[in-house]
Amino acid sequence: MNKKTKYLVTVSLASALAMILLLFRVSLPFLPPFYKLDFSESVVLLAGYLLDAKATIIIQLLKNILKIVISSSNTAFVGDLANFIMGVSFVFPAVAIYKRKETKTSMLLGLVVGVISLTITSCLVNYYIMLPAYGVMFNMPIDAIVAIGNKLNSNITNLFTFVMFATAPFNIIKGTSSAVIAALIWKNIKVLTKK
What are the pLDDT digits (tens) for 3-49? Predict the structure, then answer.
């Protein structure tokens, strides 16, 4: 199989597998129900490690398009757009840093930078775009969204505290869990690809 074909096949398979994992999402009891944890980013990370950082953007895009086609959207595409933006902010820097040297240290550094990037991006995008858009699309004032968070955490009293005490922790958990899964699996894949 030539390089281009291998690249296209890997991107296609990773997109499909990531989309399937995206369908199996779970809510965390201490966070608002519209923040759902999935492990699709682990697949995107692994494919990026095999290919390159550019592939992670393509896979993120295809994953979300496939998800919309297969299962529609119950968030008027706000959640799908958020998933794409947050996913790229996590996996692109993680893979780009790893691919420079392809060592355990570069992987760890990349994953840490990826989780930090994901957390900062998610806070900014949720504060300025996603939560206000979610409110408009579902005719729900920001105060109602904040109230959902306040029921779970009394420290949430406005949009800023919502982002600090709901959005940030969720994305730290999501990024860290995806990073750990990818790192554990990559150890085995790397051995196989060297054979």
Answer: 999 999 999 999 999 999 988 889 999 999 888 899 999 999 999 99
Q: What is the 3-state secondary structure (H, E, C) of the chain?
A: CCHHHHHHHHHHHHHHHHHHHHHCCEECCCCCCCCEECCHHHHHHHHHHHCCHHHHHHHHHHHHHHHHHHHCCCCCCHHHHHHHHHHHHHHHHHHHHHHHHCCHHHHHHHHHHHHHHHHHHHHHHHHHHHHHHHHHHCCCCHHHHHHHHHHHCCCCCCHHHHHHHHHHHHHHHHHHHHHHHHHHHHHHHHHHHHC
Whole-angstrom Cα Rg for the chain: 17
pTM for this entry: 0.91
What average pLDDT score do residues 102-119 get? 97
Count how many Cα atoms sit within 13 Å of the Cα of residue 57 in the half-sphere of its side chain: 7
Please report the domains of the chain, with CATH numbers, ordered by start residue.
3-20+36-194 (1.10.1760.20)
